[in-house]
Design brief:
With 941 residues, this protein is α+β, with helices and mostly antiparallel strands. The protein is built from 25 helices and 36 strands. Strand 31 and strand 32 form a beta hairpin. Helix 5 packs parallel to helix 18.
Length: 941
């Protein structure tokens, strides 16, 4: 008789099962087991916010498996993640099991752990608790809020602003921040200013540079030298003077180490230093948290990665201090442990900071067990945590004032020297642009703004005469505020108290999926659709996209989780005002919306022209005036003389990607001529993005039209800078990289339906951010293929035809494949444990053949089973094969046998069940059930 433990992911279940032994059965819920149905009425404010819950097939299947395992068990341990979402998943599992009658005689306990190590797991089992009701209430309130805002506000958008996709409680505020920053950039006017610098030499012959700070006895402000003429006068004054050292000021300053990572700071540093997006950083951190195979044992390398706390456990601090003392010496160890507290608004600090579970697992020691992304992120986490307990760095800063005899012309030189490196020996949190930024062509510093504190000055004393060298007058221009990167937007949202650590990555991804923003050179730029939505919401629902209001709502949700307020009281106050705002738009005419948006966004779509001509003048007729128009498919620019004048243009602002400056809105832009065929190569914009095209097509021998050769641009390609050479390389894909040393087969790189990929034989692997499909080399290709092969296991040869029998990792679990026959592995059969005989028998019993998709299936209308199998048939979640229809369909798991109808007495209940979804369950108004995010993706599996 074993106790049952429920965790969220199968990877975690496998690890924990090894730690707990044979007295426990560990099962995975695969994230949330049920959710609010994505339809009106799932949350009913009129019934005091009662909620309906519905489970999908997978959730129902997992709960049934847990119920079977509980037969004869004494205890159920709910061991989902130690956050609000994890508490909610445990609540859902318990509630569904109770409805099935599976908890009779079973003691239900909640356990949490911040790291997946044997010590932490065993300690959690020894110290269980009950479900946290206030935390569940906070989940209910947040889930109901997100649902009601999304399902109430989005239909208003669809009716009043055709072409818009959706609105969200936090998503819309994040979009507003991006749009307002873009408006600041557009309104910015660069201002010229000059600086004067001079080279000097000390009596000992050491050179250095100083900058002019005082002229004619007056201190210079930034714009006191506004043009070249004034700069030349200042330069002449320096050239006419004889200078000596007026003063030398030295002082020692300390620089303290930064605290260990929280979710947001990890995302920021991973973006800034490693070039990782928020989603990618969190996926990699999840892998490190759940564990990797080291010496035959799965080891969780970092603590839980969704946290806003910066504190660490006492034993972890002690272990890190021991490591610092033994590795770096006692000089690098502060006298007492460092204590940190979060400065972020609304920080709950319910969990530890992100740290290594065992400081002895150094990056060098575990590097060979990790892939490149995991290695780099683990090294970042490890170094930051260890550095946080190291001694402060000490710097000697020097400021030298230099002047002429009258002290009317004064220059200043500054510099610093590291007297003691302290934590800088291990970790530097540099404030300037990182190498990843510089490679992407991103810089946030103004021209000429060299960090003078990084200079080292030669020794000087007061009254030392100096020999003047060249004098330079340098021109500068003020710079607009930089666009948000994913990291800086997360930082801004955290400062404002908007969202929570677990939501940042999904918010950023949703904005891109909705085509509200695009990521260009690792900076977030609003699309015109996003600007329209933001302007609409600010004009008619400003309160609900206000940062202060949203942050205040987050504080109320925190009060709910702390048991300070009733969640229904918060919901009633919110819904009363929100419903009034929605009702106020019922009589709103689309023409009113258009007029308001046209006025608001006019400067964006119709910027002033040189020469003073009217930017709204219609180019196709006389007297016509261009303005914003709405059609069934969205907004566009049209003429006021319609229908007499039918001039229109896409809603793309001048200067934006694909506008008239590149010729893509008015037609294709010619790049040159293909030397081989003599045909023109053009770059064009289509309904699915920008692409290059060779020629214009023609007709075949039978007179039927033929399509020209085309190739899509990858996400990191800029159509404005695309040249003929790269266009021809795109058109020639797929290309041969080399031959696989193991199999001798060709390794090819190409572009497919899911983006750039490489393949060898039947194995595909998507390229990662930063990989260029046109220049990817053999070494990098072998690294990527190693990841793909890790998801494929060759079991042996089939006894019938000696063809290979493989087990592959798919999106919905491992499956077996022999030729075109596939079959999902049973859940109790691990990928690495399956034998050839078991797999052959499984293929014979449940195998289904991969068949080409029908025309309807190719358009996305395949049956669910085919869709699941298509995903499963790829080599892992990241696989990106070319868009061959045959590769899209794979066998689905065999359907469970249909049960025979019971005796006639059961007919009435069955008929009643048919009228109501069996998986849906209404919660009484007195105690609504916990809710999950609206029609959002399942939580990490």
């Amino acid at each position: 008789m074993t106790d049952v433990v429920v965790v969220e992911s199968p990877a975690k279940a496998k690890t924990i099962n090894k730690y707990l032994g044979g007295d426990f059965t560990v099962l995975a819920s695969f994230g949330h087991v049920r959710d609010l149905p994505p339809k009106d009425g799932s949350v009913r404010p009129e019934e005091d916010f009662a909620m309906d819950w519905e489970s999908e097939d997978r959730g129902e299947r997992q709960v049934n498996e847990i119920a079977r395992a509980l037969r004869g068990a004494k205890r159920l341990y709910l061991a989902t993640d130690p956050d609000r979402e994890g508490e909610a998943i445990s609540w859902h599992v318990k509630d569904m099991l109770a409805r099935k009658g599976a908890l009779k005689g079973v003691e239900v306990q909640r356990i949490t752990f911040n790291e997946i190590t044997k010590r932490a797991i065993q300690h959690a089992v020894a110290h269980p608790r009950q479900l946290d009701t206030p935390l569940i209430d906070a989940y209910l309130a947040r889930r109901a809020l997100d649902y009601l805002v999304g399902f109430t506000l989005s239909p208003v958008l669809w009716r009043k602003l055709p072409g818009s996709r959706s609105a969200g409680r936090v998503q819309s505020v994040a979009l507003r921040l991006i749009c307002e920053r873009e408006a600041e950039i557009e309104a910015f006017r660069a201002r010229e200013y000059w600086t004067v610098e001079s080279r000097f030499t000390t009596p000992q012959g050491a050179p250095f540079t100083a900058r002019l700070t005082h002229l004619d006895g007056r201190k210079l402000d930034q714009f006191d030298l506004p043009d070249e003429a004034s700069a030349m006068r200042a330069k002449a004054a320096v050239e006419a003077g004889t200078f000596s050292v007026l003063s030398v000021e030295k002082r020692r300053v300390k620089r303290n180490p930064p605290p260990p990572f929280t979710t947001s700071t990890l995302q920021m540093e991973a973006s800034r230093k490693l070039g990782m997006g928020a989603q990618q950083a969190m996926r990699t951190a999840q892998q490190l948290y759940e564990g990797v195979e080291i010496g035959g044992e799965t080891v969780g390398l970092i603590t839980y990665m969704r946290t806003d706390g910066v504190q660490m456990a006492r034993e972890a601090i002690a272990a890190i201090r021991d490591h610092v003392g033994s590795r770096f010496g006692r000089d690098y160890l502060p006298g007492a442990p460092r204590e940190y507290s979060s400065k972020a608004k609304n920080a709950q600090e319910a969990h530890e900071a992100i740290r290594p579970t065992d400081v002895r697992n150094t990056p060098e020691k575990v590097a060979r067990y990790l892939d490149e992304r995991q290695r780099r992120l683990y090294e970042l986490v490890w170094k930051r945590a260890v550095a946080s307990q190291m001694q402060s760095a000490e710097l000697d800063q020097t400021t030298v004032e230099i002047g002429d005899a009258a002290k009317k012309t004064i220059l200043r030189a500054t510099g610093s020297v590291i007297a003691f490196d302290g934590f800088l020996k291990l970790y530097r949190e540099d404030q300037d642009d990182t190498e990843a930024d510089r490679r992407a062509g991103i810089t946030g510093a103004a021209p000429g703004s060299e960090d003078e504190d990084s200079r080292t000055l030669p020794p000087m004393r007061e009254r030392d005469p100096l020999k003047r060298g060249d004098v330079s007058a340098l021109q500068h221009f003020t710079q607009p505020p930089p666009r948000y990167s994913e990291a800086s937007l997360v930082k801004r949202m955290e400062e404002l108290g908007i969202g929570r650590p677990s939501t940042y990555a999904s918010i950023l991804q949703t904005l891109q999926d909705r085509n509200y923003v695009k990521l260009e050179k690792r900076r977030l730029m609003p699309e015109d659709r996003g600007r329209l939505v933001t302007s609409f919401l600010v004009k008619f629902f400003e309160r609900y996209v206000d940062t202060g209001f949203t942050a205040g709502l987050e504080e109320q949700l925190d009060d709910i989780s702390g048991g300070k307020v009733d969640w229904r009281a918060v919901m009633r106050a919110f819904w009363e005002e929100f419903k009034r705002a929605i009702d106020a738009t019922k009589d709103l005419k689309i023409s009113d919306v258009i007029d308001a948006l046209d006025e608001e966004l006019g400067p964006h779509f119709f910027p002033e022209r040189e020469g003073g001509t009217d930017p709204r003048a219609c180019p196709a007729c006389s007297g016509g005036r261009l303005g914003l128009r709405l059609g069934r498919t969205g907004a566009f620019i049209g003429c006021s003389n319609y229908p007499e004048c039918r001039y229109t243009r896409p809603l793309i602002a001048p200067g934006a990607e694909g506008d008239g400056t590149t010729g893509l809105s008015d037609g294709p832009r010619e790049l040159g001529t293909d030397p081989a065929s003599g045909e023109k190569v053009t770059v064009r914009r289509g309904p699915y993005g920008v692409y290059v095209q060779l020629g214009e097509g023609g007709t075949d021998a039978k007179g039927k039209p033929t399509k020209p050769r085309r190739a899509s641009l990858t996400k990191d390609m800029d159509p404005d800078t695309l040249d003929l050479d790269r266009a021809l390389k795109l058109l020639s894909l797929p290309r041969l990289i080399g031959r696989d040393p193991e199999s001798g087969e060709e390794i090819q790189a190409g572009l497919g339906r899911f983006g750039p990929y490489i393949k060898v034989g039947s194995i595909f692997q998507s390229l990662e951010p930063g990989d260029d499909v046109l220049s990817l080399g053999m070494n990098r290709a072998m690294e990527l293929l190693a990841k793909a092969r890790a998801k494929v296991r060759l079991v042996g040869q089939h006894p019938k035809d000696q063809a290979p029998v493989e087990i592959r990792k798919g999106r919905f679990g491992p499956y077996a494949q022999h030729g075109k026959t596939v079959a999902n592995l049973p859940r109790n059969l691990a990928m690495e444990d399956a034998t050839l005989d078991e797999v052959v028998a499984l293929l014979a019993e449940k195998g289904k053949e991969l068949k080409p998709m029908t025309k309807g299936g190719a358009k996305g209308k395949a049956k669910p089973a085919a869709k699941r199998a298509a995903n499963g048939a790829l080599v892992g979640d990241d696989a990106a094969p070319p868009a061959k229809p045959a590769a899209r369909k794979a066998a689905a798991p065999a359907k469970p046998a249909t049960r025979k109808a019971p005796a006639r007495k059961a007919a009435a209940p069955a008929a009643a069940a048919a009228r109501k979804p069996a998986a849906a369950a209404k919660q009484p108004a007195a105690k609504p059930a916990a809710a999950k995010k609206p029609a959002a993706p399942k939580k990490k599996a």
